[in-house]
Amino acid sequence: MIEIRTQLQPKIHTEDITCNAVVVCKGKNTKLDFHSLILGKQMCSFVVDALCDYPTTTIDEYDDYFKIAKDHCGNFDYTIVIGGNLPLLSVSDMQNLVQYAIFKNANLVKFTGGYVVKNSYLKNTANPMCDNVYTQDFEDFYLVENKTQLRQVTKIIQSRIIAKLDALGVEILGKVQIDIDVQIDGGAVIFGGNVIKGFSHIANGVILKENNVIEDSFIGEGSCLSYSVITNSHIGKNCYIGPFAELNGVKLVDNQTIKGNKEK
Q: What spatial distance separates the first Cα and last Cα of the chain, rounded to whole Å?
């Protein structure tokens, strides 16, 4: 009988039980590329990051998930096989999933997007049968199978980024795009229309007025930017950039003023 889980089971000690994971970066019935970018990061990389507690392999070809598990189970007690199109997953989601499988002593746990399989069972059966279905943390187990769903999870992830920045004391005044790997220090003020990409770092006290595009750049403490494009650059402290400045590969010392060729 399949058991439907409705409440999270208590955590147990799992130090002596080993688990690995395989992330399948190609779908069976979808043309969507699981390497599609979400705010500067490949969708499948979100899944890999959520599995950071477990040795993880990625594969770019679709195959039967049980065959994949058998091919990659090694000497581990359990193997997770999961699609690379669940970018909302967190580390705790995957910890809870594995703890559930161990607590239930399950042979095969089905969840949205994959399975957790006990390898001693898998190696000795020709036709694996699911004995548990995991439904906890349901909202995070969100499959992205088309561009509409990709846009939806992008909005969710962006809202999570903004919530974290708000907790750090970053003031965001309008609609912005901030990539996942951007670092923004508390005390920064960001107006609407700003796009901050790549591995940019915005220091404490920076004011980004409307409609800047910043990519892979450092903006020093107390600087102010307006209607400018900054790429692969290092801007010192207390600089004023813009409006309509374009800087690429530039390193500015502190207390500089740079204006563009146009006036607003």
A: 69
The per-residue pLDDT for range 66-85, each reduced to its tens digit, is: 999 999 999 999 999 999 99
156: left (phi over 0), alpha (psi -120 to 50) or beta: alpha
**Which residues, 6+ apart, have CB-to-CB distance to 231 below 8 Å?**
213, 214, 215, 216, 217, 247, 248, 249
pLDDT at 262: 58
User: 238's torsion region: left (phi>0), alpha (psi -120 to 50) or beta?
Assistant: left
Going by pLDDT thresholds of 50, 70 and 90, the confidence category of residue 5 is very low
Residue type, 123: K
Residue 109 contacts residue 116 (beta carbons within 8 Å): yes
Q: Mean pLDDT in the chain?
A: 92
CA 178 from chain centre, in angstroms, equals: 13
- Sort strands 37-38 and 189-191 into parallel, antiparallel or unpaired: unpaired
Domains observed in the chain: 3-147 (3.90.550.10), 168-258 (2.160.10.10)
pLDDT in tens, 87-141: 999 999 999 999 999 999 999 999 999 999 999 999 999 899 999 999 988 889 9
SS3 assignment, position 164: helix
Among 92, 174, 80, residue whose Cα is nearest residue 119: 80
* Whole-angstrom distance, CA of residue 191 vs CA of residue 209: 5
